[in-house]
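[job 4471] stage=fold_predict status=RUNNING
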Amino acid sequence: CDVCDEKDQRRAKILSVNYDGADLKTFASGLRNSVFMAIHPVAGKVWATEMGRDFLGDNLPPDEINIIEEGKYYGWPYFYGKGIRDAAFEPDVMFEQDPDRVGSYIDIPAHSAPLGLAFIPEEGWPQDWWYNLLVAYHGSWNKADPTGYKIARYKLDAEGRRRRALSRRRRFCFRLAYEGRSAWPSGGYSGGTRRNHLCLRRQSGSDL
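[job 4471] inference complete, writing structure tokens
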């Protein structure tokens, strides 16, 4: 669904399971569409992208990058971004403060549709790029001014804290070409980094 209370208790969550398939349980909840994850190379925490709902206009809600912690609730379907209540969904439902409810770590422009993410290692990369985060944006399908279709670079320190913002000229490593509103890359997925190589592939599975 676009926004709803899920009937299937396995959805809108990150689940953990043993290698033998036993002991399936909730690791984190309130995640609308977190398809891709990466482990921070120093802190060891799980980072995940999340695509927000539609039909709140061109600029809401933000898509997100979240740092996933066991037992935490990330807000969906009632909250988005940094703990902002989605007043368009079940407006009469009231909430108290919840110490396990976590807001986004990084907000991404609405409808960017982030998918794959990868951290830059030290080996083989310029020092200014070490520990930076690359995120592949699938791109919008229903925004008046299309957005996305690119690989975005987020500048982080070794612990994952945001560093100074990159200038617009330096912010994006690649802009994936498209014609009109057809998302040619259809969510180019940043598959990972090895030494001085960045591996990319299209959502269809074709290598780039």
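[job 4471] summary: The longest helix spans residues 168-171.
[job 4471] exit 0
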